[in-house]
Amino acid sequence: MASNSIRLLDLFRYYKAGLPHQMAAITELEELINKANPNILGRNQSWFKTWSQSGKQQDYTPAIKLIKEFEGCHLTAYADPLHGWDVATIGWGTTRYPDGRKVSQGDILTAGEADRLLQQEIDTIAKRLSTSIPHWSEMRITQQSALISFAYNLGSGFYGSSGFETISARLRNKSWSDVPSALKLYRNPGTPVEAGLLRRREAEGAIWSQNTTVLPTTSTSTSVSLKVPYEYQLDNGPTGYRECFSSSCAMVARYWGKIAGDHEYNRVRRQFGDTTDPKAQILALKTLGLRATFEMEGTAALLENEIRSGFPTPVGWLHKGPSTGPTGSGHWTVVSGFTPTHFIHQDPNGEADMANGGYVNHKGGANIAYSRSNWLRRWLVDGPESGWYLKVRPT
């Protein structure tokens, strides 16, 4: 051991949860360890089994993967749509830090910190469920993980509460083969979010029925396609050539049944500003009953999760120059699906030349498949977490 080495025991002794400089140092240390040997911090390592008292601390990887599939991650704090900054949120849905402090406007996390907060929340939920749900210890990890995801979405106090009689009875009576069908009851029937919640409940039911800890959810080999109505920007009159953003937002508004076409959408949008202004688009969508936020930390995985959850996503990317060095002021399309090798776009300007830049033609932009290798270079220009997109939800 070098003379200037630091013992981990000393670090633990002076650790205080929530101190920003300590959190930053821990994240930096994790990155260095993972760079040196990505296996060292694995839960299957002997040191972790010793740490967790011979493996008593469970590995809820299926729950983590499922929650991440259906929850978005924000590395900067954002206001709750209903309660504003009184309920600021960050990461994978964190509203309070482990030391009890509320998330505040201006807070920033790294991806590693967001993951760590998610893990801590999962451990907290698991602890509560283990004391409130009968027969918890008899369940497989996949069954516990399904209920953790369910609780993360609907609250860890669901068991025995009003409105949760069916799932509570199935768990209490050990009617475990009937749990997946009970989960599907909790999807807000008749609301705009029903389709997305049903997909989540089905995914939870699927891992409940598994005998292993492998999560049977969609992966990079899965193809998903949403039926998004197409709008063509160049038929919008003399300013149509610059209205890709508006036509893209109009497609999403039509998908949710809010308008008949982009001409109707533009009449609303013009009340709030220019077509290139994200704020004008957000206010127009709000007027139509859609909640939208402008995000600048998009990833390929996040985009897939949006589509899996039933949310077509407007994306801004550079359409000029070669894919190895894209340029331009930006272009907006709607991602409506993906395959292992392509993202499916609704391109209001036609068919882009992904390799060389520009456009092959100004027709055929509906359900156009753009290769991942070329398009992601145009979207993730500043790094793997730098994609611009609008996150749109029905209110």
Q: What is the strand and helix layout of this fold?
A:
Elements: H1 8-13, H2 20-36, H3 46-51, H4 61-70, E1 74-80, E2 84-91, H5 111-132, H6 141-154, H7 165-172, H8 179-183, H9 194-208, E3 224-225, H10 244-255, H11 262-269, H12 278-287, E4 290-298, H13 300-308, E5 313-317, E6 331-338, E7 342-346, E8 351-352, E9 359-361, E10 368-371, H14 372-379, E11 387-394
Antiparallel strand pairs: 1-2, 3-6, 4-11, 5-6, 5-11, 6-7, 7-10, 8-9
Jot down its keywords.
395 residues, alpha+beta, 14 helices, 15% strand, globular
Structure description:
With 395 residues, the chain is of the alpha+beta class. The protein has 3 domains: 8-51, no CATH class; 61-208, Orthogonal Bundle (Lysozyme); 224-394, Cathepsin B, Chain A (Alpha-Beta Complex), CATH 3.90.70. Helix content is 38%, strand content 15%. The chain has 14 helices and 11 strands. Strands 3, 4, 5, 6, 7, 10 and 11 form a 7-stranded antiparallel β-sheet that branches. A two-stranded antiparallel ribbon has the order 1-2. Helix 6 (141-154) packs antiparallel against helix 9 (194-208) and helix 10 (244-255) crosses helix 11. The longest helix is centred in the first third of the chain and has 22 residues, at 111-132. The N and C termini lie far apart (58 Å). Mean pLDDT is 86; it is low at 212-221.
